[in-house]
Amino acid sequence: MSALELLDPASPVSVAQVDADQLGALSHELAAEHGARLADLFGDELEDGTVVVRVLYALDRERRYLILESALDGESSTRLLSSRSASSTSSSACGRQAARA
Question: Which of 8, 6, 12, 9 lies closest to 69 in space, CA to CA?
């Protein structure tokens, strides 16, 4: 699924429920391919302990906003954080290589 498919053509603000496993890929697509910027990030803990994350992206060229909403349990939040930490490590290594050049 493409991030742009989640936009409601009739509204300047779209909200889409996505699986936690899709957040990383959709975030990358929005930033790298569509020039979207991360505008805000919210989280709510439900009574059963599930955390609902809402990630707000601004697509400035289109004058639109997209909110990705995802329920995280302990397992999905661990995967999300570990994939983030792996990409941070990778970009840090790239930065060190560029500094040496």
Answer: 6
Nearest Cα neighbor of 62 from 1, 2, 4 is 4
pLDDT per residue over 37-76, tens digit each?
Answer: 999 999 999 998 889 999 999 999 889 999 999 998 765 5
Type and span of the H or E element at 34: helix 20-34
Phi then psi dihedrals of residue 4, to 5 deg: -70, -25
DSSP SS3 for 43: strand
Task: Report which DSSP code applies to 50.
Answer: -
Question: Per the structure block, which two tokens stand in for 33?
Answer: 């391919």
Q: What is the distance between the alpha carbons of residues 15 and 94, in angstroms, rounded to a whole number?
A: 34
3-state secondary structure at position 37: strand
- C-beta atoms surrounding 89 within 10 Å: 10
